[in-house]
Amino acid sequence: MSKKVLVTGAGGFIGHHLAARLVRSGDWVRGVDIKEPEFEGSHADDFRVADLRDAQACREAVDGVDEIYHLAADMGGMGFISSHHTQILHNNSMIDLNMFAAAHSASVQRIFYSSSACIYPEGLQEHADMQAGLKESDAYPAQPQDACGWQKLMTERMAMYYRHEHRLESTVARFHNVFGPLGTWRGGREKAPAAMCRKVATAKLTGDAVVEIWGDGEQTRSFCYIDDCVEGIYRIMNSGHHEPLNLGSDEMVSINQLVDLVADIAGVQITKRHIDGPQGVRGRNSDNTLMRDVLGWEPPTNLKAGLRVTYAWIEERVKLALATDQVDYPLQHVG
Ligand code: NAD
C-alpha cells in the first residue's frame, strides 16, 4: 500500500536520491529542505523549502505523513566538521529536537534517523590499519572526535527514548562516507572522493598534474556508493531492527590509494603533494557483521565501480566550471 513519507534534507545529496527511490517504489513523498536540490529538480511529489530548526516548520512538514526519513543536517567534510563545532551542535540539535517532537505530536508511525560513523570513539581509530572495522557495540564508552559525533550520539539516544516512552518506532543507521553523482563536489563541504575526483579532473583538464592531499595520505577510510546507501536506508527502515546499524562499505583504502584509483579511472598521471590540513581520525572502516545478520545484505558496489560513475559526473562539472571561469575551489576533505 502506498505510504505518505517525509524526507528531510531532500535538497541534499542523499535525501535527493532517497526521495527519487521512494517515489519509484510507489510512495507519496514530501521533501523538505532549507534549499532546493542543486543539480536537478526534486523527484518528490511535494517539495517545500523550510528551516527545520523552527518547531512550527517541523510541525507543518510532518502533517499527514506516515513515516519520516530524517536526513536534514548542517554538515560537511573534515575541513567543515573540524572548524564549525558550535554551528553543528546548535543547528543540528535544534533540527533534531524539533523534528522528533513534531513526529511524536503528529503520531507519526516510524522515523529513520541518519547518524554517522563519526560517533565512534577516537581512541579506536588511531591506526591506519583498521581491517577489523568498527562494530556497533564499539560506540560506548563514548569519545567521538568532534561535536558532530557527540550531537549524532545524543539524537541516537533521543530516538531510543522516544521509542521506549512514546512508541515512536525509530531506526538508526550510522553512515560511513557516502559518495556518488549529485553530491557536493566543491565549496568547502565536499568529502574526500568528490574532492579527489575534482582535483584529478582539474589536473587532467588543465595539465597541472599536482594533486594536494592533507597529511601523508596514509589515513584510511571506506566509502559507500550512493545507490547502496539508499537501498540500505530502505532496508533498515523496513527491518524491524531498532538499534543503530552501520551502513557503509568494508572496502578500506588509504587516501593515497583513493587518489591513485581516481587517476587510473581518469587515465592521467598525477603528482601527489602532501600538505598540512585536518585529517580526522587516522583509520576508519565499517564492520558489516551485524548488518549482514540483520538485513541479509550489504553494499554490493565496489569502490572502483562507484568512482567511475562519480568521476565522470564530476569531470563534466569541472569542464563547465573551467569553461565559465567559475573556479573557486578551496581545499580537499577527508570525511
Ligand atoms: P547534505 O548536506 O547534502 O544534505 C543535508 C541537507 O540538510 C542539506 O540539503 C541541507 O540544506 C539540509 N539542511 C541543513 N540545515 C537545514 C535546516 N535548518 N532546515 C532544513 N534543511 C536543512 O548531506 P548528505 O551527505 O546528504 O547527508 C544526509 C545526512 O546523512 C546528514 O544527516 C548527514 O549528517 C548524514 N551523514 C552523511 C554522510 C556522508 O558521507 N554523506 C556520512 C555520515 C552521516
Structure in words:
The structure is a single chain. 39% of the residues lie in helices and 17% in strands. By secondary structure, the protein is an alpha/beta fold. The strands form 4 sheets. Strands 3-2-1-4-5-6-11 form a 7-stranded parallel β-sheet, sandwiched between helices. The protein has a two-stranded parallel ribbon with strand order 7-10. The longest helix has 21 residues, at 85-105. The structure holds nicotinamide-adenine-dinucleotide. The site of nicotinamide-adenine-dinucleotide has 27 residues, from α1, α4 and β5.
Order of strands across the main sheet: 3-2-1-4-5-6-11
User: What is the overall shape?
Assistant: globular
Helical percentage: 25-40%
- Rounded Rg: 19 Å
Query: Given the helix and strand composition, which structural class is it?
Result: alpha/beta
Question: What is the number of helices?
Answer: 10
The mean pLDDT is: 94
* Helix-strand topology string: EHEEHEHHEHEEHEEEHEEHEHH
Give the beta-strand count. Answer: 13
Distance between the termini: 38 Å
**Any ligands, ions or cofactors bound here, and which?**
nicotinamide-adenine-dinucleotide
Largest sheet: 7 strands, parallel
